[in-house]
Backbone:
């Protein structure tokens, strides 16, 4: 128990036979239930967890016979913990690279009613992340964070790929997890779903842990950002349409639609004008003005759409 709340811990693990043991050893006593989701591991991850469960009755193994992805593993853990009446559910990886001793930082905003979902932010700590994280991963992290701000509507969040999180049971029970992304990139998709349902999300500083000789992350900088971009784009359109057109109405829906029509139209028209100039056909003043109007007006519509979306998410 922590401040009168029953705490569950979900640990998604795939092929973590070497690190899942130390991860379980580091779990603080405040955690009431530990759910290790073995996501189709090919090694002895399940056996190691079962052995640890004999020493710690809080540990329970949830097995996926086939690999379904880390997002699916987290969702399975969420649903099990909610059924077990855990008030708050924390997620930590099975690779022993998340600071269990800083778990209170995630729990306090939820216990105090300030947020429904808390996530770690390694950049707020101002410590070792800039020294130890490769530049290509920092750039990739910033790219993903920028895209996720627009897709999710949470413009104040950074380090969106961080998987050290906590969520209330009310949020777990309200979100339709069938719509969630099951693979890598799930933390960003979860933010889109949380914003759609109007939940409050907060960043909390946490220490970055790097284990010498161990793989550090599935994120590979810019390549990872490009891989998850289609998912973020689909999530953005889904959220804007259902939140601001179906569930309720807000003019920003039309701002985004007009902006997405006018900017591409301006770019195509401008490309055509450049071709005419190169071909020696000439470009008239009205044609150039029309192109500029498309680009300027479309950009303004997009910026106003982002502004209104940001205002709608204030306090979220």
Residues:
């Amino acid at each position: 128990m922590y401040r009168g709340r029953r705490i569950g811990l979900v640990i998604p693990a795939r092929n973590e036979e070497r690190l899942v043991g130390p991860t379980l050893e580091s779990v603080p006593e405040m955690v009431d239930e530990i759910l290790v989701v073995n996501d189709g591991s090919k090694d002895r991850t399940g056996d190691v967890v079962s052995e640890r469960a004999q020493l710690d009755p809080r540990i329970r193994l949830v097995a996926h016979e086939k690999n379904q992805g880390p997002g699916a593993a987290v969702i399975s853990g969420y649903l099990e913990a909610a059924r077990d009446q855990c008030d708050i559910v924390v997620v930590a990886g099975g690779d022993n690279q998340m600071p269990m001793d800083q778990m209170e930082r995630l729990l306090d905003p939820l216990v105090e009613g300030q947020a429904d979902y808390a996530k770690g932010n390694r950049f707020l700590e101002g410590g070792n992340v800039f020294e130890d994280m490769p530049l290509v991963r920092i750039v990739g992290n910033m790219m993903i964070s920028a895209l996720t701000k627009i897709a999710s509507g949470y413009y104040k969040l950074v380090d969106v790929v961080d998987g050290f999180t906590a969520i209330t049971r009310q949020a777990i029970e309200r979100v339709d997890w069938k719509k969630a992304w099951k693979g890598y990139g799930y933390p960003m998709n979860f933010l889109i779903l949380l914003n759609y349902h109007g939940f409050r999300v907060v960043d909390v500083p946490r220490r970055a842990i790097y284990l010498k000789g161990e793989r550090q992350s599935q994120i590979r900088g810019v390549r990872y950002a490009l891989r998850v971009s289609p998912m973020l784009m689909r999530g953005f359109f889904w959220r804007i349409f259902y939140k601001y057109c179906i569930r309720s109405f807000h003019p920003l829906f039309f701002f985004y639609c007009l902006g997405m029509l006018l900017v591409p139209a301006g770019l195509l028209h401008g490309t055509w004008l450049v071709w005419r100039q190169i071909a020696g056909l000439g470009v008239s003043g009205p044609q150039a003005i029309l192109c500029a109007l498309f680009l300027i007006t479309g950009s303004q519509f997009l910026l106003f759409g982002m502004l209104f979306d940001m205002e709608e998410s204030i306090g979220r």
About this structure: The longest strand covers residues 7-13.
